[in-house]
Design goal:
A 5-stranded mixed β-sheet has the order 3-2-1-4-5, sandwiched between helices. Helix content is about 40%, strand content about 20%. Helix 3 links the parallel strand 4 and strand 5.
Length: about 210
């Protein structure tokens, strides 16, 4: 009895599921500065082999005990960490609400684990890893060091490394008034990543690589 075929996405990124992440924070140091917002966009592949957006998730996060809150960072993001209307939850609750659907998506796409996609991905990756450690989360779905950085990819594909400018050159609508919301920036980063990957496919890159294996 033959087994069911694997999802085609499982072969595209060495068994990793790309998941787009953006965080909003109260500073630049992931060990000392508060994580305030986190958003994730999972991706899938259509019947023609094109990467597309699947689902979006986000959470408002309470500063962890003793967290540093840089005034300049809060002014930049416009976030009041202690606004009761934010509906913020603990780092553990926020991350688990994001990680649970990511783990489900990994399984449904026959992948081994997730790989974080971010605009300047090292920043987001550092905050996710450190918050996971503080929350004592044992099943972090993300690869511990590999990431896909859309700032680098956009620099190659469109000659721009700033998210808004890269989207403009790529023809992706970008509303500066909604920027620096974790969910909005994640969705735009996901659009940009999908466009770059799919353009490479259209240029014959992925199929060309596969052909050399045969």
């Amino acid at each position: 009895m033959s087994s069911a075929p694997k999802h085609p996405l499982s072969d595209r990124f060495r068994g990793f599921l790309p998941v787009v992440i953006d965080v909003e924070t109260a500073g630049f140091n992931p060990r000392t500065d508060a994580l305030l917002e986190v958003a994730a966009v999972t991706l899938t592949m259509d019947e023609n082999g094109y990467l597309i957006i699947d689902k979006s998730f986000d959470a408002q996060v309470q500063p962890f005990e003793g967290a540093n809150l840089e005034a300049a960072a809060l002014e930049f993001t416009g976030i009041d960490p202690f606004d009761p209307e934010r509906g913020a939850v603990s780092e553990q609750a926020a991350l688990e609400s994001i990680f649970k659907p990511i783990r489900k998506s990994i399984k449904s796409h026959d992948c081994k684990r997730a790989v974080l996609v971010g605009h300047n991905a090292a920043f987001d990756h550092g905050f996710i890893l450190n918050a996971s450690e503080r929350a004592d989360i044992k099943r972090n779905p993300f690869h511990p060091f590999s990431t896909f950085d859309t700032a680098t990819l956009a620099g190659l594909a469109f000659g721009q490394t700033v998210l808004a400018r890269a989207c403009e050159v790529a023809g992706i609508e970008f509303d500066g008034k909604q920027a620096h919301s974790a969910l909005y920036d994640t969705q735009k980063t996901a659009e940009l990543f999908c466009m770059i990957v799919n353009r490479w496919k259209d240029l014959g890159g992925w199929e060309m690589v596969l052909a050399t294996r045969d």
